[in-house]
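Contributing new records

If you add data, match the layout below exactly. Sequence lines come first and carry their own label; structure lines follow with theirs. Keep one chain per record. Anything else will be rejected by the validation script.
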Amino acid sequence: MSKTLQSQPWFRPTLGQLAEYLRLGDNWDGYGARPIHDSAVKRAVAVLDAVCPAGPEPWIVPTPEGGLQIEWASDGLEIEIEILASGTAQVLIVEPSGEESEFPAFSDSTDTWDLLRDRIAEMRCRTT
């Protein structure tokens, strides 16, 4: 994990939030949700380090399948990265125009990381 990510004011509270999610038990939502898997949390931290070490604060929520969803939104641009319980990631980018780009089997290719980094940096510029 990079020092840049660790220095973000939102990072320490985010780690605490992820630790709380790991403590969620079976049926945490009252509808049969599975506990959050540690591989999803590890992957989420790796994704944050890769795509937004100096970016805006993400919103992270648990999913009923035992994974996590990481989200950013600014001026109509939305980026969602769903981390499955297995650690696999899926990406959805919704443009201000409503156009959607999906990456259902998110790969660790440099092109994908670069695209996400650029789009998240664009959000950072919009909010500063």
